[in-house]
Design brief:
Blueprint: H1 3-10, E1 18-20, H2 26-29, E2 43-45, H3 50-63, E3 67-70, E4 86-89, E5 96-99, E6 104-108, H4 113-121, E7 125-126, H5 137-143, H6 150-153, E8 160-166, E9 172-176, H7 181-190, E10 196-203, E11 205-206, E12 209-217, H8 221-233, E13 238-246, E14 261-269, H9 273-284, E15 289-292, E16 295-298, E17 312-321, H10 326-337, E18 343-350, H11 353-356, E19 372-381, H12 386-399, H13 418-422, H14 425-438, H15 457-460
Parallel strand pairs: 2-4, 3-4
Antiparallel strand pairs: 1-2, 5-6, 6-10, 7-11, 8-9, 8-10, 12-14, 12-15, 12-16, 13-14, 13-18, 17-19, 18-19
The protein binds flavin-adenine dinucleotide (FAD).
Amino acid sequence: MAAIDDVRARLGGWAGRLLASDCAGFEDVAPVVFAGDGAAPALVARPRDAGEVAAAVRAAAETGVPFAVRGGGHAYARYGTVAAGLVLDLRLLGGARIDPGRRVGVASAGTTAGDYTAAAAAHGLATGFGDTLSVGVPGLALGGGIGYLSRRDGLTLDNVLGAEVVLADGSIVRASDDENADLFWALRGGGGNFGVVTRLDLRLTPTTVVTGGLLAFAPDPTTVGALLAAAAAAPDELSLMVNVMKAPPAPFLPAERHGTPIVVALVCHSGSPDVAGAVLAPFRAAGTLLVDLVRPQPYPDLFGLAPNQVGTWPAQRTGFVETVAEDAAAAVIDAVRTAPTPVAVLNLRPMGGAIARVPRDGTSFAHRDRAVMATVGAVSPAGAGAADARAWVARAADGLSLGGAAYANFVAEPGAAAASDAYPSETLRRLQEVKRQVDPGNLFRSNLNVLPAEAPAAVRA
Ligand SMILES: Cc1cc2nc3c(=O)[nH]c(=O)nc-3n(C[C@H](O)[C@H](O)[C@H](O)COP(=O)(O)OP(=O)(O)OC[C@H]3O[C@@H](n4cnc5c(N)ncnc54)[C@H](O)[C@@H]3O)c2cc1C
């Protein structure tokens, strides 16, 4: 029997939740967000609870089929699918539960940032995620999670209090500071390498009305540095992203700017509204302001400004910079002007604040002392212009000296050095040791893959 048929037989009781390419509804569950080469899986299995996750994990391990685990399906590198293999799609394990008394939120594996944010907002609480509500909570949290509350509360992974995990042998364990502490350390930065997280417990922080939104500036090279300098001097309640990008055809941007370079700051001040004006003044003064949409608003309303990239092909390079000097900013603005794709962007995320207060070895996200996370990206329609987009990204990233360190969640094309870019050598060594203990056969490899450390000689003998 072919291995995939063997999996199908083992999970035969999952009526309507085990979809092969000959099943009605397969086209709805097969794709992930990005199109890539379009290669489809052979089978998509949709468990309802941790016990069913364990059964599918055992089936994958024992048959040796190509295997991928999918949450929200947003990985730029399309980790949530695998050609001709088994996809474990966690979306039916959805749901967020909020305990306002303890200020703890529980995200099941299929929960999106949007589901959770809405549930928490009903209690005046939030856990910070990224800039997009459709992203899966565990997928984001296991790699990092940088967004509108990060300088106040840390990365999403800094707010993880505990996890339930199905390991490669099908066992179900808890990980926290008190239980399986090495696994808990590895999960917070090491992505999906160590098992299937079926539940995450997350710290909630009071968050109601924030002062935030979009500031759009004329493409003056000094504006980029001025925004980064303002961020470095701002209190922790201020988080922001800066984009040097081709202006999309959005109705709130002047029509004559559409398709030409602009500088955009997406800001969120989550402190007292009384001081927001003073905190935001240096940002508003960073250049020639074209559009100011910053206003007090309920925290969940901040979302929705990120573009929908479904079905496209992303080229992306990620790294860290200390700042962007005026000549480098001028070069990026020129590069954006002549980019071969409609979407071309340098995305800058100032770090610092609570992110920097976690010790470098406290979690497996170790880039704690870096000033700014930087990503150059171009998005092309599926099947068209991918090579040109990739070449453009490489040129623009080289101009900024991006390289040698990467943010795992933003890696789009993991090469042989991906793990050593994402993790400094001591972190990687520790991750490999945990991997050896919980997944020595590397079942969980459709991710930014950490290879298991070699077994010590005494164990090998
Ligand atoms: C439009 C867009 C905007 C984004 N914005 C931000 C942002 O602002 N900030 C930020 O930090 N990141 C951002 N990201 C990156 C995002 O955090 C990562 O792509 C993340 O890994 C997506 O998780 P997912 O579950 O949606 O994706 P998937 O592709 O389903 O999963 C991604 C990886 O996580 C693993 N995984 C998912 N769920 C589990 C689980 N329950 N247990 C074990 N492993 C699991 C998968 O196996 C896979 O390796 C963005 C991505 C997109 C496409």
